[in-house]
Amino acid sequence: MRTINISNRPIGQGQPPYMIAEISANHGGDIERAKRIIEQSAKSGADAVKFQLYTADSLTLNCPQEDFLITGESLWKGRRLYELYEEAATPYEWFEELFAHARKHNVTPFASVFDEAGIEFMENLGAEAYKIASFETVDLGLISACAKTGKPLIISTGLCTLEDIQDAVDAFHDAGGTELILLQCNSSYPANPKESHLVNIPDMAKHFNVPIGYSDHTTTSVQAIAAVALGATVIEKHVIDAREPATADSAFSSLPEQFLELCDSCLAAFHARGEISYGPTEHEKGSIKFRRSLYVCKDIKQGEAFSKENVRSVRPGYGLAPKHLENVLKGKATQDLVAGTPVSWDVVE
Asked: Where is the AFP-like domain (predicted)?
């Protein structure tokens, strides 16, 4: 599996998780708030901040039909798609300033794109990567357009069947793309933790042989930390500076202290995951002496047979390994032995 690089930061197995702070609609229409979230995310440990580049017109139609009304169990139930996207959109004229602000604070800025005009806009800003949202993963033309930039592409896979994901991967490669990351995701807001299906992460890595991450829409950190333990190489989390004033996405976004804890915990989970390794670790070596081994537990005279009455498996570990007990019991002592003597082959005849 190849390692992907965004702004010279390697992403892949054996690398610390790449932490993406998703700002989305949490600017609340205030560029200063957006800049504040960038600063807080950088301090908390974000590698990147991500925006969403769209207008209401690039996402949907301004139509009165019921198809365009949000229904069901949703934070936005009763609202029209056009109205919601109008409120949540990040103004295009902000992006140059926001990208500069992010780079000033040593985090990589990039965006989810929703049409080819957005890709062209991002290219002019020097975007170093692109993101495809789960709802756009079925738009293979958009994926192909991103691939043709030659930049790394991150694709969320909420709602997707395995076939949907394969179609997206094939579209990316067929268009000449080489650096791809897939994110396990649940596209409900907030997501039900029981529907995280994190075991998809190692399964997707096996199927597609690309770095796999996790886009987390739950209201806790547990799922993202567990995802890293299962091999996630990227974690994406919505972030906000404060619960008030509320935004379209504030209910499932992390506050600065929560995102800081998430970054620290994901790094700890990465180190805990480690690599396949058997035998004592460097810091365990000093404990080997406390393992069980064979010791004389009752004084033995030279020539006396070893027995279960005079030899036992006990701690510490300076004698023969317990697996040798049966062979020791077939022998006799080559010398007088006092209780507490470790059994070694030179005292067994």
From this structure: 293-349
CB atoms within 10 A of CB 56: 18
Structure-block tokens of residue 232 = 């996630």
| Tokens matching residue 13 | 């197995």
Residue 220's Cα: distance from chain center in Å?
14
Longest dimension (CA), the chain: 101
Q: Which CATH class for the 289-347 domain?
A: alpha beta
CATH of 14-54+89-273, one of 3.20.20.70, 3.30.930.10, 1.20.1250.20, 2.40.70.10: 3.20.20.70
Instruction: Kindly provide the b/e burial profile for residues 6-31, where b requires at least 16 CB atoms within 10 angstroms of the residue's own CB.
Output: beeeebbeebbbbbbbbbbbbbbeee
pLDDT in tens, 162-206: 999 999 999 999 999 999 999 999 998 899 999 999 999 999 999
* Residue 192: other Cβ atoms inside 10 A: 11
Q: What residue spans in the chain does CATH classification 3.90.1210.10 cover? A: 289-347
Q: Which part of the chain has CATH 3.20.20.70?
A: 14-54+89-273
List pLDDT tens digits, range 247-272: 999 999 999 999 999 999 999 999 99
pTM for the whole thing?
A: 0.90
Classify each residue of 241-279 as buried b or exposed e, where b means 16 or more C-beta atoms within 10 Å of its C-beta. beeeeebbbbebbbbbebbbbbbeebbebbeeeeeeeee
